[in-house]
Design a protein that fits this description.
Layout lengths: L10 H4 L6 H32 L1 H8 L4 H26 L3 H31 L7 H4 L3 H37 L8 H25 L3
Length: 212
């Protein structure tokens, strides 16, 4: 006879996967380290070119709209606050308020992307994008500046979209009851990723908008 204990009827159907929040947090922090290396390399490249072409970088920065940049900074800082509030409410067993704060964060994400899209469209209209004849006719340092601007802000926008996808997944799972108060790791990790998005922009904003 087998020494294995008998499985109660219906146990398999009610079995839930093991919960390992420490492992999830470790994985997220390791991922964040790779992101820091990625953007750290880009920041280093930016610093080298800015040192070599300081005057051109200052002139190119004057062509950006600081109102757009400042507004997007305020939007992202506000969204980080609402992410924190969503986790606070979730840990206290208030899913409706949690989903409301997540929804507000998503709206901030859409607002950020909308403003950035409008700003990019203006640059395309004025021929200030990589490969444009008008940009290539300007000093070489300005060409490098806008190349870095579109590369780094574009990569950041991709991260915003990924962060929004994670938060929307959490919003859905909380609504369906699949994400419960006892297992907040997914929402916490999604919030941690969103804070990374915010921190990256905090560096991008002065590098591109505040040097003129």
């Amino acid at each position: 006879m087998s020494d294995r204990p008998a499985v109660a009827k219906g146990e398999a159907a009610t079995h839930t996967p093991p919960y390992n929040p420490a492992g999830g947090r470790l994985g997220m922090w390791l991922f964040i380290c790779t992101e820091v290396l990625l953007f750290g390399g880009l920041f280093l490249l930016y610093s080298v070119y800015r040192y070599r072409y300081a005057a051109d970088f200052h002139a190119a920065s004057a062509l950006l709209d600081r109102v757009f940049g400042t507004t997007n900074t305020i939007v992202l800082i506000t969204s980080s606050l609402t992410v924190v509030l969503s986790i606070f409410e979730f840990e206290r067993g208030r899913p409706s308020r949690t989903r409301l704060y997540i929804l507000f964060t998503l709206l901030c994400g859409f607002a950020f992307l909308g403003i950035k899209g409008f700003e990019w469209a203006a640059k395309f209209e004025h021929g200030l994008y990589p490969g444009a004849a008008h940009l290539l006719s300007r000093p070489f340092g300005e060409v490098l500046y806008f190349g870095l601007y579109f590369t780094m802000t574009g990569l950041h926008a991709v991260h915003v979209i990924v962060g929004m996808a994670l938060l929307f997944t959490a919003w859905l799972r909380i609504g369906s009851g699949k994400l419960r108060r006892m297992r907040p790791a997914f929402l916490e990790n999604a919030g941690l990723f969103w804070h990374l998005v915010d921190v990256i922009w905090i560096f991008l904003f002065p590098l591109f908008y505040l040097i003129s």
